[in-house]
# Entry
Amino acid sequence: MAGQFPFRPRPQVQGNNQNNNQQRDARGRRPVQENPHRINDEITAPQVRVVGENVEPNLVLPIKEAIRLADEMELDLIEISPKAEPPVCRIADYQKFLYQQKKKAKEIKAKQVKVVIKEIRFGPQTDDHDYNFKLKHAENFLKEGAKVKAYVFFRGRSIVFKEQGEILLLRFANDLEEIARVELMPKLDGKKMNMILAPKSKK
# Structure
């Protein structure tokens, strides 16, 4: 009929609580309690900035008109930046929007590199056999992408050999220079002298 709006009227919420969590609209959209965003009639701002496919740039509308526009496109109005002035709302299918957000978060998490640090312990007077054994372990750790924290532990009065411990760690770094870079130079911390090596990036 001429003069009527070309969209389906939204069903009224039944019962005493106008935010009844069990209510769904005609397209079976989620109840309020399951939504991480405010959508459609849940949005309280008097006007919003509308974005989305087939939406003109910098479009600001009264909330009722924004909801009407989303309804005409048979999509949802999703509040994505509630603290903006005015709040930003995207017109999209809410289920697809949620799926894309979860997929993006999963991809970001997968790209986050977990840093593994392996420890190699020396005494201030480590012999060559023990040194070479630990050098081989460090090479394997670095090739696997882990960082290596090498340290010399000074027991009792052996702290007088701290210079010897520093020389040992610098030798260790030098022997691994083809596959590792020094991230922390030898540094005395209590009874330990620590050095951290990180794998060199592959070209």
Q: What stands out?
A: The domain at 32-109 is CATH 3.10.20.80 (Ubiquitin-like (UB roll)). The two ends are 69 Å apart (CA to CA). The mean pLDDT is 82. Strands lie at 47-51, 59-62, 76-81, 88-92, 117-122, 147-153, 180-189, 192-199.
